[in-house]
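Sequence, please.
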C-alpha cells in the first residue's frame, strides 16, 4: 500500500468537522471587542491620571469663606516651611508669594515666618496671603541672625501694614543703608516711607500703632556694619515716633535693650524698661510705675476699649473687671511677630470662624498621588486582560 492510499483511507474514516459558517466573523468581532476594551481601558487610565494632574492645581487655591462682615479669625495656622523656599538669588520660589499687597484688602492678622516671609490673613474671607514686600528688611538673610524675627504691624483697622525696610543697592558695602519704616495701604497699594538715619542704617525691631491708627512708634538698632552678608550693632538703640500722615520721625537714643513700647492717640510713648516710663517726644519722663504685665505681650485694644494680649499660646481679651478670656489659638511659631487688627474685635464679638488654609501639596505628595492613580490604572488593565483571556478560553471550549 502506498502512502497516498493510506492517507486516503484515514481521511475517509475521519469524522467530519462541523464548522459554523459564522465562525470567522464571530472571531473577528471578538478580536475587535478585545481591542476596543483595551483601548477604552488605556483611555480611562490616561483620563484618570490627567484628571488627577489637572485637579491638583485647582486644589492649590485656599478655601473661600462666605463673605460678610470683617473679623479676626478664632484660630490661626502656621505656614508650611516649603512656602518660604527661596531661589539661589534670594527671591521667593513659590508662585503663591505676591508683590501686590492689595490682594489682602483689609487685614485681620499678620506675622513673619521663621524664614522671613510676611503673612497677612484677610479680614473678609480668612484667606492667607504671602507678601513680597518691597525692600522688606527680612529679605536680608542676616537679619534673623542679628535681631531675630523681622517686624510687621497691622493698623488697628487692618487697612495698613507697617514694616521695617532696608535698601541694599550696589553701594551697600561702602555707604549707609537707606532704612526705616514703610507703611503700605493694603487697599490701594499707596506707600509711605519714613527714613530712620543712623550709622550704616537702622534695623527696625518693633513697631506699634496708636489705638486710633494715626500715630506710629518704633524701636531700632543703628548698625555699624550692614551689608547683604553681614550686620552688627554696638551702643544704644533708638526710639522714634511718627505723627499722623507724616513721613518724618522724631528719634532719640535709648539705652534699654529691646523695650516693650506702646503709643496713645496723643503721641505719648510708653516704655517698658523694667518699669513704665513715658516719652513725649522730648525727654523720657516718670512716673516710673510698675507694670502688671509686660508691654511686649500687648497687641492693642478692642473697638470698645478692652485690652488684647498674647501672654502665651492664645490671644486673650482682658475686661475691666473679671478674668481675661482666651479668644484665639496661636501656634508657637506665629507668636513672636503676631500683629492683629484689634479694632475689628469687640467684647461681644472678638473673633469670627474661618476655614483652615488649604496649602499646595508638596512635590513629594503630588508625585505620590499621581503614582497611586497610575498604579491603579495598571492593576485595572491587568485585571481586564485576565478577564478577556478567561472569556476566550471558555468560548474555545
Amino acid at each position: 500500500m502506498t502512502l497516498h492510499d493510506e492517507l486516503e483511507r484515514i481521511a475517509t474514516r475521519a469524522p467530519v468537522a462541523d464548522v459554523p459558517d459564522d465562525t470567522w466573523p464571530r472571531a473577528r468581532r471578538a478580536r475587535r471587542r478585545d481591542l476596543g476594551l483595551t483601548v477604552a481601558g488605556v483611555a480611562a487610565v490616561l483620563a484618570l491620571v490627567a484628571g488627577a494632574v489637572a485637579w491638583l492645581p485647582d486644589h492649590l487655591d485656599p478655601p473661600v469663606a462666605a463673605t460678610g462682615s470683617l473679623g479676626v479669625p478664632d484660630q490661626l495656622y502656621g505656614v508650611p516651611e516649603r512656602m518660604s523656599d527661596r531661589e539661589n538669588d534670594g527671591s521667593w520660589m513659590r508662585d503663591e508669594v505676591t508683590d501686590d499687597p492689595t490682594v489682602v484688602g483689609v487685614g485681620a492678622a499678620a506675622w513673619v515666618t521663621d524664614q522671613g516671609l510676611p503673612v497677612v490673613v484677610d479680614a473678609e474671607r480668612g484667606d492667607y496671603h504671602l507678601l513680597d514686600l518691597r525692600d522688606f528688611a527680612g529679605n536680608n538673610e542676616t537679619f534673623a541672625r542679628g535681631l531675630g524675627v523681622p517686624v510687621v504691624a497691622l493698623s488697628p483697622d487692618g487697612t495698613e501694614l507697617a514694616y521695617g525696610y532696608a535698601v541694599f543697592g550696589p553701594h551697600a558695602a561702602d555707604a549707609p543703608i537707606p532704612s526705616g519704616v514703610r507703611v503700605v495701604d493694603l487697599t490701594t497699594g499707596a506707600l509711605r516711607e519714613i527714613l530712620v538715619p543712623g550709622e550704616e542704617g537702622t534695623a527696625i525691631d518693633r513697631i506699634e500703632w496708636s489705638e486710633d491708627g494715626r500715630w506710629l512708634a518704633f524701636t531700632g538698632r543703628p548698625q555699624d556694619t550692614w551689608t547683604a552678608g553681614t550686620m552688627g550693632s554696638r551702643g544704644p538703640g533708638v526710639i522714634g515716633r511718627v505723627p499722623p500722615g507724616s513721613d518724618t520721625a522724631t528719634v532719640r537714643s535709648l539705652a534699654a535693650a529691646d523695650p516693650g513700647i506702646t503709643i496713645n492717640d496723643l503721641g505719648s510713648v510708653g516704655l517698658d524698661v523694667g518699669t513704665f516710663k513715658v516719652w513725649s517726644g522730648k525727654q523720657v519722663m516718670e512716673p516710673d510705675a510698675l507694670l502688671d504685665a509686660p508691654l511686649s505681650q500687648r497687641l492693642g485694644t478692642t473697638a470698645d476699649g478692652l485690652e488684647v494680649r498674647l501672654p502665651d499660646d492664645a490671644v486673650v481679651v482682658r475686661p475691666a473687671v473679671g478674668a481675661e478670656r482666651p479668644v484665639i489659638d496661636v501656634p508657637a511659631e506665629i507668636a513672636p511677630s503676631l500683629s492683629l487688627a484689634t479694632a475689628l474685635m469687640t467684647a461681644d464679638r472678638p473673633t469670627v470662624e474661618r476655614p483652615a488654609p488649604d496649602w499646595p501639596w508638596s512635590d513629594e505628595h503630588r508625585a505620590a498621588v499621581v503614582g497611586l492613580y497610575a498604579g491603579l490604572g495598571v492593576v485595572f488593565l491587568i485585571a481586564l486582560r485576565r478577564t478577556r483571556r478567561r472569556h476566550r478560553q471558555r468560548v474555545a471550549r
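The domain at 65-344 is CATH 2.115.10 (Tachylectin-2; Chain A).
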